[in-house]
Specification:
Length: about 500
């Protein structure tokens, strides 16, 4: 059964496939909560590593990750296996959990150099190898799993945010309390991580086992090879890739400057209260249910803009809240206004970037564009966030300790912790507001872009996804070189001259 390009019939939402798809996201969210929220605390208070050193480790690791992101994008764009384009790399979630367990099992009594190498290599394997390959294939996998349908992908992102938040809530709520009971030594940390890693790794396999890709999306294009020249064209001619990347860098810098653990330990004096703060985003879950309706009136960039405004108000409240937990909870709700759309609606923006590539006469380059705008930017943000956390703690004269021994911090360290939980994020989020306005210009062009692409498909007799896949990157607009279109027409004339009544894709021939 073919899938029409352009205006499509409203499809029934595939609930079973959707739930199977979200199993991996729930698992990955749990892993990120643990690593981004507690790794620095583990390194400074149990391995005895200085904060600035931990931040440098994470920064260097994420620089390496940024390079592997681009390599992974090329790999995905040139992958055409029997399992599909992105699905084979989904198994990377298992490698992520194995390395997470190993990372939190660091040799506490070893020389400092060995500790540094241990954390660096495990962190790099988690995010620079396994998560990079998984992330590079995720959007291509998503598009093919839900039939390249923009409406379905938007709903998966909106409703998926609810499922992921609820699913990862078990980790957010329980981890601080369980950490207090079990993670009193280095051996306790290993037991703690295993307690979460084993069930979450098993749950994650649901996506790979039960969600298959739609081969019709790639019919006729299985042997198209992506070249370095294709990458350079996207690199230089799609400015919106850079605006989107800037937003992701700033957002992930804020997200991974995870000072909240230190804040609740030293300012509030109660890490158990952090578990409740971690789920403040649940207050916004009803809004995610309405998001498909909201997106009919507001673009994703507008949703990000307003979310950033509310987040700034939340971080400003943090500065005045001090140790008053109720005010910190209110601030947590406001901060989540930015986190939810940037975590769960990115696939819609990425699809627009793919379409813009095609509109400009470029190859769609789903894997490479995804990694350039999202994967690499995320890694850079993670590295900057971890580096700022360590560097600013050290600048505030934060005192590290071993085996969790509580150390009274100087006033300079306490002030720095407060600033990192309020003023520093406000400055970074102001940049998100700026770039969301820049990205909004693409939103205004999308209706016209979609019309142009649909008209070109019809002009050359392409009416199905299978036929369009035969001519990747052949639809040109503002370039002087119109070779792509001419090649298509010449190929069709040759087919007609050879006695072929209609130009069909290999997939359609098989169906016939």
């Amino acid at each position: 059964m073919t899938k029409e390009i352009g205006i499509q019939k409203k499809k029934r939402f595939p609930f079973g496939r959707f739930m199977a798809w979200k199993t991996s996201d729930i698992s990955a969210a749990g892993l990120n909560i643990i690593v981004t929220g507690y790794l620095t605390l583990y390194c400074t208070d149990f391995l005895g590593l200085p904060g600035v050193l931990v931040g440098t480790i994470l920064l260097v690791s994420n620089i390496v990750d940024a390079v592997t992101d681009l390599i992974a994008g090329f790999i995905i764009d040139n992958t055409h296996s029997k399992f599909g384009k992105g699905r084979p790399y989904e198994i990377g979630i298992i490698g992520m959990w194995i390395c997470t367990v190993l990372m939190f099992s660091g040799p506490a009594n070893a020389p400092q150099a060995l500790k540094i190498a241990w954390v660096f290599f495990m962190y790099t394997f988690i995010f620079g190898v396994f998560n990079t390959l998984r992330g590079a294939g995720s959007t291509a996998y998503l598009v093919r799993a839900f039939d390249n349908d923009r409406d379905l992908v938007g709903k998966v992102g909106s409703f998926g945010g609810i499922v992921t938040t609820l699913g990862s809530m078990a980790v957010s709520l329980s981890f601080p309390s369980v950490m207090g009971m079990i993670a009193t030594s280095s051996a306790g940390w290993r037991k703690l991580i295993l307690l979460y890693a084993v069930p979450l790794a098993v749950i994650a396999l649901g996506r790979f086992i039960f969600v298959k890709e739609n081969p019709a999306i790639d019919a006729g294009a299985q042997h198209e090879k992506v070249t370095f020249r294709d990458f350079l064209q996207v690199f230089t001619r799609n400015k919106y890739v850079w605006f989107y990347a800037a937003i992701q860098i700033l957002f992930n810098t804020v997200l991974n400057m995870s000072v909240q653990t230190h804040y609740f330990k030293y300012i509030v004096g109660n890490t158990d209260a952090l578990g409740i703060l971690s789920i403040m985003g649940i207050m916004l879950l009803p809004a995610m249910l309405l998001m498909p309706l909201v997106l009919k009136h507001l673009s994703v960039s507008k949703v990000i803009f307003f979310g950033a405004v509310f987040a700034i108000a939340g971080y400003a409240l943090n500065f005045f809240a001090g140790d008053r937990v109720p005010l910190l909870y209110v601030a947590g709700v406001l901060m989540a206004c930015l986190q939810l759309p940037l975590s769960y609606l990115c696939a819609v923006l990425l699809m627009d970037l793919f379409n813009y590539n095609e509109y400009k006469g470029l190859a769609r380059l789903e894997g490479t564009t995804n990694q350039l705008a999202h994967g690499m930017a995320t890694q850079i943000g993670q590295g900057l966030g971890g580096f700022l956390l360590g560097a600013l703690l050290s600048a505030g004269q934060y005192v590290a300790s071993e085996d969790g021994v509580f150390v009274a911090q100087p006033d300079s360290a306490l002030l720095m912790i407060r600033l990192m939980y309020s003023v520093v994020p406000i400055i970074l989020i102001a940049g998100i507001i700026f770039f969301s306005c820049k990205l909004g210009k693409l939103d205004k062009q999308m209706p016209e872009i979609e019309k142009v692409l649909e008209a070109r498909h019809k002009e050359i007799g392409v009416t199905t996804a299978e036929e369009a896949a035969e001519y990747p990157g052949m639809y040109v607009t503002d370039t002087d070189d119109n070779v792509g279109y001419d090649e298509i027409m010449k190929a069709r004339e040759n087919e007609e001259a050879s006695g072929t009544d209609e130009a069909q894709s290999p997939h359609e021939d098989k169906e016939a």
